[in-house]
Structure formats: C-alpha cells, structure tokens
Amino acid sequence: MPTLFRHKGYRFFFYSNEGEPLEPLHIHVIRGESVAKFWVEPEVSIAKSYGMKSSELIMLRKVVSENEDVIRKAWDEYFSK
C-alpha cells in the first residue's frame, strides 16, 4: 500500500493489487475511519466515499487535481514493474 503523500492529516495512497486487469488510474484517500477513491482518468472525479463530508471531498478533489502529475508518475513507476 504505497503512500504517495499526506495533506492535512489525509493519506493519499494506492493498493499494491489494484485489480486484474488493472483499474484505470486512481488514488485512495483515508483519514481515521473515512475513506474516498478518486479517479484521475479520464478526469479527476469522486469514485466513492464513506464518512466524508461534501466539503472534504471538494477540498480533496482539488488536492488530487493539483497533484495529478505526482500521482500519475508514481502509478506508472509502480505498476510498470
């Protein structure tokens, strides 16, 4: 479960096994018991969330958008092994 970065107590990561076949580019976010999954392709959008307020999801979507290049690079490097 590689952690890419943290922001205001949220951990941004992806799972080592992201499905077979591999799911499209996305990132998971967790803080306490609350979790969310954001698609990065074809555009940044919320895939699902549990326990997060809409204001959190709006902020997190912005963070994912701002870090799209970091996420994409880490994804490509990790899953091209």
Radius of gyration, Cα only, in angstroms?
Answer: 12 Å
Query: What's the overall average pLDDT, rounded?
Result: 93
Kindly name the structural category: alpha+beta
The strand count comes to 5
Distance between the termini: 15 Å
Order of helices and strands: EEEEEHH
Given the structure, what is the number of helices? 2
Strand order of the largest sheet: 1-2-3-4-5
Low-confidence stretches: none
Report the principal-axis shape. globular
Helix content: 25-40%
The biggest beta sheet, please? 5 strands, antiparallel
Q: How big a fraction of the residues is strand?
A: 25-35%
Overall tally of structural domains: 1
What does this structure look like?
With 81 residues, the protein is of the alpha+beta class. It has one domain. The protein is built from two helices and five strands, in the order βββββαα. It has a five-stranded antiparallel β-sheet, with helices on one face. A hairpin with a 2-residue loop joins β1 and β2. The longest helix has 13 residues. The two termini are 15 Å apart.
